[in-house]
Automatic annotation (TrEMBL):
InterPro entries: Fe3_Rdtase_TM_dom, NAD(P)-bd_dom_sf, P5C_Rdtase_cat_N, STEAP_metalloreductase. GO terms for biological process: copper ion import; iron ion transport. Belongs to the STEAP family. It is a multi-pass membrane protein. This is Metalloreductase STEAP3. The chain crosses the membrane at residues 213-231, 259-285, 306-324, 358-378, 390-411, 431-454.
Length: 489
């Protein structure tokens, strides 16, 4: 350590921020290592605050220290770039990569030290070299570690959420990397070693990815919406126009949309539970859980949470659209016309009244359950429940939501699927189409609950393998003999 590092930079005492996440009064540890930061921008300010609160002494290097000093906590020393790098063994480069070359004069002072490159590029860089590799070329006598670029200045300031915010790191020097990892932990983050500096290109490209895990579920929801909207348009708007010259195009903005959202919500919800059934059937067929699922099933399984949230959004929009339906002008006109034409006994049909009461009630319950599932999928809620509770909410309550939603649709459709007059353009009613996948998912789940199947699946999920035990007993024997643990067979 250089002599200057013994100089106490901290003027106030306090505790560590690491675990609580909140910035508290800093530790007064004059022996604490000095961390250098080059640059005085947003990232540098947030980093300095967190480092000070985590008990480090901080030296910030600026081209114009006087101008920037007031923006930093008083415990941090804001000085010239040269002086700052002279004080610290570990220096963060919080300067945009375009300006890295302007730091070349610091080369001798940075020799043998660790440089942390926090920079991101303007766009995805597929060909390389990465900013960190360029920085390593510029400072060959320093050890460059890439990291911290995947978190925002704001996250640095407010601290890691749920105590588990990961920081991806890579670098060629093990000792440099381990000192940065230690610093990460002390700041309350979880460092993840991504290997050599050649991984820095991937790490730099990560912040440019726009909702990567939402692409497939969003596309799926959009395609379903387009399909069901076109289907409803054909049946409910185009058919009356073509066959009877009746113009009902006014239905397009609300009624057709509101006939589309419930179908999309139900099909998307069934897509949350179908891959689980497919996976279970595949495991039963293969007689093991150790063979990898095909890629398409893997991707499908990992998209379930997003599919569930898309389903929730469609259900919520269906609920809102349904509430505004009676307040439309066209609904008022229709009501007036019908009330003049019909007597009370014509309008009041007991079975019809019951159907509407029941399907509305089922719809409300289904929406309540879906809201619960959506809330339970938030990381802060999911982390607060244990595994059993989480699986109860997502599996048992999830299937309940699927069942009640299906019931809502069945009650809505009633016997209309069997009425030939409802087959406009020979197309079955939308609800009948929307019911196919949910019914398959529910029947599949029911089949898996059959005691014989459930027991065999239970064995497979506890590690039983047909290929290892088939010489001694077939799974049928295991299940029918009621053997609890096939490893004893
Ligand atoms: N902001 C964020 O949320 C995140 C930022 N990052 C990365 O952190 C780095 C800094 O970002 P940010 O703090 O937002 O940027 P700012 O523009 O706010 O700050 C950059 C700082 O670089 C310093 N600097 C040094 N040399 C030059 C030069 N030649 N020209 C211009 N500025 C220079 C300046 O400080 P001075 O004038 O005092 O020398 C300036 O304040 C970037 O590489 C960015 O990609 C990464 C993740 C998140
Ligand atoms: Fe509905």
């Amino acid at each position: 350590m250089p002599d200057e590092m013994a100089r106490p930079l901290i003027r106030r005492g306090g505790g560590e921020a690491g675990c609580s996440g909140r910035l508290e009064a800093p530790a007064s540890d004059p022996g604490a290592p000095v961390v250098g930061i080059l640059g005085t921008g947003d990232f540098s300010r947030s980093l300095a605050r967190r480092l000070v609160a985590s008990g480090y002494r901080v030296a910030v290097g600026s081209r114009n220290p006087k101008r920037s000093a007031a923006l930093f906590p008083e415990e941090a020393e804001v000085t010239s770039q040269l002086e700052a790098v002279g004080l610290a063994d570990l220096v963060f480069v919080a300067v945009f990569p375009e300006h890295h070359s302007t730091l070349a004069a610091l080369k001798p002072s940075l020799a043998g030290k660790t440089l942390v490159d926090v920079s991101n590029g303007l766009s995805v860089n597929r060909d390389g070299p990465s900013n960190a590799e360029r920085l390593a070329e510029l400072f060959p006598e320093s050890s460059v570690v890439k990291g911290f670029n995947t978190i925002s200045a704001w996250t640095l300031q407010v601290g890691p959420r749920d105590g588990s915010r990961q920081i991806l790191l890579c670098g060629n020097s093990c000792s440099a990397k381990s000192s940065v990892m230690q610093l990460c932990r002390r700041m309350g983050f979880v460092p993840v070693d991504m290997g050599l500096l050649s991984s820095s290109l991937d790490i730099e490209n990560l912040p440019h990815r726009l909702f990567p895990c939402w692409r497939l579920p969003a596309l799926c929801t959009l395609c379903l919406f387009a399909f069901f909207y076109a289907y409803n348009f054909l049946r409910d708007v185009l058919q009356p126009y073509v066959t009877a010259g009746k113009s009902v195009f006014y239905k397009m903005p609300i009624q057709t949309v509101n006939a589309t959202f419930p179908a999309v919500a139900l099909v998307t919800l069934s897509l949350v539970y179908l891959p689980g059934v497919c996976g279970a059937l595949l495991q039963l067929w293969r007689g093991t859980k150790y063979d990898r699922f095909p890629c398409w099933l893997d991707r499908w399984l990992t998209s379930r949470k997003q599919l569930g949230l898309c389903s929730f959004m469609c259900a919520a929009l269906h609920a809102i659209y349904s509430l505004v339906l009676p307040s439309r002008k066209s609904a008022h006109f229709k009501l007036l016309i019908e009330s003049k034409q019909l007597q009370e006994e014509d309008v009041w049909v007991d079975a019809e009244v019951w159907r509407v009461e029941l399907y509305l009630s089922a719809g409300i319950v289904a929406f309540g359950l879906l809201s619960l599932l959506a809330v339970a999928s938030l990381p802060s809620v999911a982390n607060a429940v244990n595994w059993r509770e989480f699986s109860f909410i997502q599996s048992t309550l999830g299937y309940c939501a699927l069942f009640v939603s299906t019931l809502h649709t069945l009650l809505f459709g009633w016997d209309r699927a069997f009425d030939p007059a409802r087959y406009h353009f020979y197309l079955p009613p939308t609800f009948a189409l929307a019911l196919v996948l949910p019914v398959v998912a529910l029947l599949g789940r029911l089949a898996l609950l059959a005691p014989c199947v459930a027991r065999r699946l239970g064995l497979i999920r506890r590690g039983w393998e047909r290929s290892r035990h088939v010489r001694f007993a077939r799974p049928d024997d295991v299940c029918c003999n009621g053997l609890e643990d096939a490893s004893y067979v």
